[in-house]
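G.,

No rush on this.
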Amino acid sequence: MAAAPGSGGSGSVAVDELRADPVGMLDLLARTADGMVAISPTGTILRWNDGAAELLGYEEREVVGRPCHEILGFLDRCGNAVCSAFCSGRRPTESEELTASRDVLARSKTGNVVWLSVSTLLPPPAVRRFCRIVHFFREIGLPPELERLIADRLQARSGRPEANPLVVLTPREREVLQLLADGADTREIARTLVVSLATVRNHVQNILAKLHVHSRLEAVVLFVRFGR
C-alpha cells in the first residue's frame, strides 16, 4: 500500500498542507492507486476515489453524502461489525495521525465479498471539523485459516464428494482465476492480458456463476485447492 501522509519524514509537510487546504489535500490523497474514502465529522462520505470504485463497484456520485457504514460495512473475519469502532465511533487523540492497518471483510455493490487491508489517516485536530478520517484500502491475499473455513463451507454447501469444479472453466477463465489467486486486481489483470476492464469483470462474473460461488475469495479458494 502506498504510504499515507502523516507517516515518515514528509509527514509534517503533508499535515501542514492538509491544514492549509483540506479540499486540495483530499484531491491529492485520492490519487493513490489504492481505495481511498474521506469521512466527514457526521460520518458521511466526502471523497471516494477511482481505486475505491474499482474495488467496491460504487462510483463517487453514488456514495458522496451517504453514511459511510452503509457503503463500507466492514466486518472482521468472524462476521462482527467493525465500522463503529473503526470509524464513526473512533475517538482519536490529539497526537494521532495514522492508525495501524487492519484486515476486514467488505461487500461490493454487486454483493461480492472482498477481503481488504485498511489503514486510517486521522487528520490534525484543526482539520477534523471538515474531514475526520481518511481510509486507504486494498484487496489482500487469503489468510490460510480463512481459506480452510471457506473451503469447508463450500464443501458442506455442495454435499457432494470433492471433484474438480474448475473443469467448467474456459482456458481464459482459468487464466483470469490464476491471476486472481496470485493477488492481481482487475486493473492488473487487464494490463497483463491486454484486455479492457469490462472484459475482465465479465470473465470474473462468468467464473463466479460457473463455480456457483458468491465472491472472488471463494473462487480463489477453489483454485488453490483444485487448480495448482
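When you get to it, here's the other one too:
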Amino acid sequence: MMKRILTFGLLLVLTVSYGQKVTGDYEKGTDFSQYQTYEFIGWQDDSDSILNDFDKKRLREAIQSEMAARNFELVESGGDIALSLFVVVDEETSLSSYTNYYGGAGFGGFRYGGWGNGFATTNYSESDYLKGTLVVDMLDRESKELIWQGVASGTINEKPEKREKKIPKAIAKLMKKFPVDKVK
C-alpha cells in the first residue's frame, strides 16, 4: 500500500510550497563564476524509484529552469558542475490533544472560594502522515568535491492535480538558497 501511494506521483514536500522547510549550504570561498555548465548525473541510490515519470520530468524541468535563469547551461556530459538528486520519504505520527473543562459552582459557590464540582475531558488523536525530503547536491566535476547542497523537506501532499504548479514553486524556493542569483 505504501509503495502504491508513493508511486502515484511525487508526493513529497515539493508539492507543499508554504509549509516547506528549505536549507542550503555551500563551500565558502567557492568562486561560482567559474562554472558555466552542469550535467545531471542521476538519482543517488536509485531513490527515484518511488517517483513516477511525470514528476521526475517536472523536477528536472524545474531545476533546468532555475539553473538557466542563473545562466547555467545543461550539457549531456562534461559539465563544470555534476548535479544529483536524492529523495527520502519517512512515515511520521502526529499526536495532538485537546482538553475541555466544564466547571461547576460546587460547595460555597464561586463567590466564597469554595471547591467546584466541574469536570474535564481530554481527547487525543493520532495522525499518520508522510514526510518527504529532497536533497540536491552539486559537485565540482573536476575535483568531485561538494560545492552546494540544498535540502527541502515537509509534509507530503497527495493531490496530483496541484503538483504541476507546486513543483516549480518549491524548486524556486529551494534555489533561493543557491549562492548565484537569477540574471535579470
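The mean pLDDT is 81. DSSP finds three helices and six strands in the chain.

Enjoy the weekend,
O.
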